[in-house]
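Lab notebook, bench 4. Still working through the backlog of constructs that have no structural model yet. Next entry is a single chain of 799 residues. Request: give me the structure tokens for it.
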Amino acid sequence: MKRNIYILIVPIVLLFCMADISLGWSLQEGRLMTRWAYEVDPQNTLPEYPRPQMVRNDWMNLNGVWEMQFGDEGDPVPAGQTLSGDILVPFPVESAISGVMHHNDRLWYRREFQVPSEWDDQRVLLHFGAVDWESGVYVNGNSVGVHKGGYDPFSFDVTPYLNSTGPQELIVRVFDPTDDGGYARGKQTLYPGGIMYTPCTGIWQTVWLEPVPQISIEELKLVPDIDRELLKVTGFVSQTVPGLTVEATAYDNGTVAGSVSGAANDELSLTMNNPKLWSPDNPFLYDLTVVLKQGDTVIDQVDSYFGMRKISVEEVDGTNRLMLNNEYVFQMGPLDQGYWPDGIYTAPTDDALRYDLEMTKAFGFNMTRKHIKVEPARWYYWADKLGLMVWQDMPSVNSYTGNPQPIDRAQFKTELQRMVQSYHNHPSIIMWVIFNEYQGMHDTKQLCEMVKSMDPSRLVNSNSGDNSNHDHTIGDVFDIHNYPPPAVPHSDIQATACGEYGGIGMAVTGHMYDENSSWGYGSNVQSGEELAARYDSYTQMLASFNTNDGLSAAVYTQITDVEIEVNGLMTYDRAVIKADPDLIKVSNKQYTRTYEDILPTSQQTPQSWRYTTSAPANDWYTTAFDDSGWNEGPGGFGTSMTPGAVVGTEWSTSDIWLRRNFEVGTLTAEDMEKLVWRIHHDEDVEVYINGVLAFSAAGYTTTYMPLQVSETAKSALIENGINTIAVHCHQTGGGQYIDVGMALETVVIPEDNCGAWGFSPADLNKDCSVDLEDMTIFAADWMECSMPDQVGCINHVNP
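Model written out:
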């Protein structure tokens, strides 16, 4: 069985080769670096076309080494001056890849560019993917405009400011208040710690130039309607003049699938007969060409793509469910915060940007929650192509640390509108999340209604982590957070989701942002196998919630470690995949489990235990201890209002001690591999087998969980004899409950999935039952590695 999975790091010698390239820039060495940092080319930085849904052939990438210097309020524009330092655009000034790795709230950027002669007689647009937070743009000493907002793309028509010949000077002034302004900032803070991270200041997405005709296509709006088998297409133009028409043609692998023409700025209906539907299992994308004509003359053309899919909430068997393409699909995804140890908000390369999504798919997720950050358009492009549903959060105002400021409500509304408008066409995005855990929450009903009116084709989640008594009539989803195990809310009018849970901590020495201050939710695990087992136990809870309580979606925290949080499925540097993706994938399929009792719980039939609520002698857990003076009663033990409790004996004190004898008979080697605990504890628990500490856990569960039995516990078992189990449970507040059992677990896989997901048919019996520990993992995208203590590595495969 695989343990931690490592990826070979590019030799550090590349760093020294790169340090001499391009002006004075050099890659800095941060606390932690990814392998992609050493692939960054300052002369060809993030060269990919930045806007895949509206493509023109001619463009100029302005990424690369720029002049830079720190500034102060009131500084004059440094036109015609050489600035004091250099920075690699588009990496935040705090990042190692920027070459600066220092924070300042005011910056100046400067560079020169040449306009190709072929662009004569066209308008020249200057595009910024994103700049955090306020940016003033100057061309040849002239103010072009000011933009406020750290997450949305913007552009200026710089044609009037260009010199007729020669170099053009571009200067960008940046101001970023971070904590000290009442603006959207997500997880950024000047005081990193806990769940808040390093700030991101300045240009952090691609800067580029684009020539366009005097009258051009300015924006596309694409809305699929699978029920009517059509795509609604609107081509907005830069100027409205008589005789403008738009022609849109859809292609299925080069073959025309439909076309429509009509007036510019009007919504057109492009018929798609028997459309191929986009889904995570089949992320089919149609190509789209949109042509702008004046009379019979073509004056502009852009290429795009779209996916035919529908997302909705419908009642299924009396329960409101999240529906994809009119079918119920349980949405299972990780929290994805989009942070990088060396680039902060900016992934080092497009391969790096894509990698997290590839691994999300490799872990068997069909969804991901982009957590209070907005990504470059290429991130959503990869989600579209790879097939991941996306919950898109609006970045929060007034997060957990720092100096909360009065919220600029008008600015927040403007940025929310821009987010929806800018990323509307991506089929992967299926939900807009307005607030997270009440952070900066205001005008909730009005903002939800605004977003729904802008985009009725998607779902709106008013507040992910809505655990208090909020108005659950707002939005499409009632979404709670619960750590570490998941939980389920109940609603008669909304679909329900657990928008965050898990956070299983696993520290990996040498791959931590801070070796001394790292943490996860609940108790940490020590190995990839333990992480996979704990993850699986939570997923089985979700399966029960899905079947019995109407839960439609869950979000696991999280895909990678982030700064001092070590609760990722991968380390922050993406060098170690902590748990075998195939095991996580099997868990995410939520296959049926069957259990053959070795030590029955009281979940179905009350079991008799000896118990006491008074502190016993120190040897209370040993086999020789005399418990004849203890009380005797049926399990489980606790209070009736505790979630998932089946109370046989009331227990309401802070502590309880339990003992019981049992026999296991003869256990084969195969049986030993199938052994799991069946345990429901609220709160901290210790379990001893024949005097040996066999299991312990902090926190609580909300249902019976199957948990892997350790080798220590297995070794303590006496076959064909009497065994003693001793249990201590400690409660600090709220509900309380304890019950423990042991069983043999079998996974039942539907026959139509036999041989899938890396299972060898030889390992499966007639009904496709298989023990997880005995599965043969042979996925084609894994390869063996020669590095010591490493079992498998990712062999990168392009989509």
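Notes after review: Residues 1-22, 754-799 have pLDDT under 50 and may be disordered. The domain at 43-210 is CATH 2.60.120.260 (Jelly Rolls). Flag for follow-up if needed.
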